[in-house]
Amino acid sequence: MTMKTIAVFFGGRSTEHDVSIITALASIIKPLQLSKQYHVIPVYIARNGAWFGDEQLTNITLFSSGKIKDYIERSKPIGVSFDGGLTLLKPGGLSGLKRIKVDVAFPAMHGTYGEDGSLMGLLDMAGVPYVGCGQAASVLAMDKVLAKLMAQAHNIATPKFLYFNRTEIIADTGSIAKACQKELKFPLFVKPAHLGSSIGISRAGNATELHNAIEVAAHYDDIILVEEAVHNLIEVTLPILGNDSPRPALLERPLTSAEDFFDFDTKYLRGGKKGGKKGGVKGAQGYSQLPAELPKDLYEQAEHTGLAVYKALGCSGTARVDMLIDSKTETVYFNEVNPLPGDLYAHNWRTAGVSGVALVTRLIELAEERHAARQQQEVAFETNYLKQF
């Protein structure tokens, strides 16, 4: 039996370029190779947008040593053919080009031009099955404002918020800050609407900090979200797997202090220990309580909210839903969705009884199931419209 070819896409023109490399190499390519079920092709998209693909790109040392720059300079990019599917065109072979037909695409690209729906739209046009959320769900999930509006439309609680575009902010940051102070109560969180990994997020406790935070966020994005902090805070996150019948992993609680939040530095450069308490389970973003130690009813309420958000946004394959709990009122608020969780939250699934190999193989099965279902939909409609010309 011929092994299916899985192309893993990572890197990209994104602020989360480096995080994407780790997700791809450690959490996707390695377990796919260990399964011995697939022919795995790494497709690295450089910061300049060029695509490369060969076995050398599975070696983390190539990236951590900085030698990737030399590799890019001396290597020829690969091409792509949309031929009723997706075929990679690599330099080499008797004809000068080696054609590699992709059976399933496995996106590992965080942030812009990746999990924001850009790559998914390309793969949809190509007609190739791909892992994870579809284009529409990815767009919603990666837009913090749209995701909250969609959640509210489904009667899912969110913290009180306002949002503004960069043009408004540049024209009069002071007026925007005053509007926030009039409608919202400190402390506030200011966030770029479309970025992941907490890049550009600031906590503002007064008018001066708010003004500065708005300017910082506007440097990164064209839509800025300002929302009230949740008091008596318990942060939880829930990885979910599935298409029409999603399955939750374990509700997880990051071990940070109430006054802290997961900025980029906390998540990736300090191992998630900024102000946190060491202990618990070590995951991609530091230590966490797994499963979260909550009263049974509150745990189930958070689990229900996570699944409700997953369905409301039309997620498929996998996603991670982040929630904020007021421990006194026991209110669960939807915070945001990550349509491509860093490292796929494999540590959580492992504790829930799903190995890294089982996780990636199941994701490929879900991709093929969704693709097969979409193939059943009629996309052509014959008319006599052109005959009148």
Polypeptide structure, described:
The chain is of the alpha+beta class and 389 residues long. Helices cover 35% and strands 24% of the residues. The protein is built from 13 helices and 18 strands. It has helices at residues 17-35, 60-64, 68-74, 118-126, 135-141, 144-153, 166-171, 173-183, 207-220, 264-269, 296-312, 346-351, 356-375, and strands at residues 4-11, 38-45, 51-52, 79-81, 86-91, 97-102, 104-107, 161-165, 188-192, 202-204, 223-228, 233-242, 247-248, 253-254, 281-283, 286-289, 317-326, 331-338. A 4-stranded mixed β-sheet has the order 3-2-1-7, sandwiched between helices. Helix 1 (17-35) crosses helix 13 (356-375). The longest helix is centred in the last third of the chain and has 20 residues, at 356-375.
Give, in spatial order, the strands making up the sheet with the most strands: 3-2-1-7
Average pLDDT, all residues: 90
Content of β-strand: 15-25%
Describe the global form.
globular
Termini gap: 51 Å
Radius of gyration: 22 Å
SSE class: alpha+beta
Uncertain segments are 270-276
Number of strands: 18
Q: Given the structure, what is the number of helices? A: 13
Binned, the helix content reads 25-40%
**Main beta sheet: strand number and arrangement?**
4 strands, mixed
